[in-house]
Amino acid sequence: MREKILGYQFSVLNFSISPREIVKHPLFSGSAVMILGTNITNFIAYLYHLIIGRMLGPATYGELATIISIMGLFFTSFGFLSLVVVKFVSASDEGELGGLFGWFLRISLKIAVFASLLLLVSIPFLNNFLYIDKKILILLAPILFVSSISVVYRALLQGLLKFNQVVVSSAVEVSGRLLLGVLFVFLGFEVFGAVFAIVISTTISFLLLKYFLSKLRLKILLSGFKDGKKVLRYSVAILLGSIATNSIFSSDLVLVKHFFSSYDAGIYASISTLGRVIFFGTSPIASVMFPLVSKRFSRGNAYRKIFFLSFFMVFLMCLSILIIYLLFPEAAIRLLFGARYLEGSKYLFQFGIFMSIFVLASLILNFYLSLEKSKVSIVSVITALVQVVGIWFFHSTINQVINVSIVAASFMFLALAIYFLYGIQKRSVF
């Protein structure tokens, strides 16, 4: 009976696979490490929001959540490097790695300086727009600078399929954020203390990544990489796509902070944090899929099973979390944030729909990027604009804000799905 179940073949779109193939597939083993490790990290991250949210209260927590969203938006200035590094590292020979890594380090330093200066110049505007203390906003500059270097180290490890080191470094960072954040908030430093804890934990994570890289005995070459122009051409599209994707993920919270009261922004921040369980719970699958598809594509090997398995796994995870949010919204809110945030329970399932559509669309987008079809990034750019413009004009209620995001994410998914099916018909995908 066991062998019969393991050997059963099921088919979708001319793609067939058995449970035995799934278990033995490198996507499954790599995803198992990433899902387990990343979800431990995410658990610590949500524990952070649970404890800090209760300590600060809705109004002050809304301010911290907005700061974290701003970090997400600014991280895009170098976060796109992660995908680019993974793409080229996974497709490179061992002899090319030293020069490639050195080239990316130089680029990341330039981006770090530019992003930090841009942030410092933007502080007066952010202060007036979001009503957040300038001293807190200044702390974002060192976070940006250190993280810009860390993203190259972490992406290099991911491109080399060193998933254990990737999840350990992330877990250390969020653990430091939690322990130090709780300490500083308890001592009375409130939001400033919580953000300063992020500065310290980000630095500790970087030092750990540097140690992991030294164990690989990879010699960093500051010259010798000759395909810089090819990387830059690919990077421009990835940059636009990353900015747009992070905007879809973060701009709604920033706009809610601007248009709504501090209390309402705190309520929205709680459902946003819970809704992102879907994003963070499924992101390890995309993180494993990307280098596997990229490596196989560059070598002319088959890769369609990797994508279909990834999509299937992401869909099941989204569906499972949505069922929980539909049946037990108040329990989820009460468990993580307490009774003061229960007003958000009526929006939780709705926000979960938005995140589910978004992560499925993002998976298709990442698949195309791994195939060097970077022009599809324009879809995410249009989606981000639709969301921002929509919320700007339609923000009477939180319900209306979420509906705008659902419409935007649905456009992204449908556009990419139609392009995907067209690619199958024309045999330009597989």
UniProtKB/TrEMBL annotation:
Locations listed in the record: Cell membrane
Cellular component, GO annotation: plasma membrane
Residue spans crossing the bilayer: 27-52, 64-89, 101-125, 137-157, 177-210, 231-249, 269-294, 306-328, 348-369, 376-395, 401-422
Domain of life: Bacteria
Keywords: Cell membrane, Membrane, Transmembrane, Transmembrane helix
Coiled-coil blocks: none
Short name of one Pfam family: Polysacc_synt
UniProt entry tagged with the keyword tRNA processing: no
UniProt topology in membrane: Multi-pass membrane protein
Statement: the UniProt record of this protein carries the keyword Nucleotide-binding: no
Chief subcellular location: membrane
PANTHER family, per database record: POLYSACCHARIDE BIOSYNTHESIS PROTEIN (PTHR30250:SF28), PST FAMILY PREDICTED COLANIC ACID TRANSPORTER (PTHR30250)
Protein's name in the database: Polysaccharide biosynthesis protein C-terminal domain-containing protein
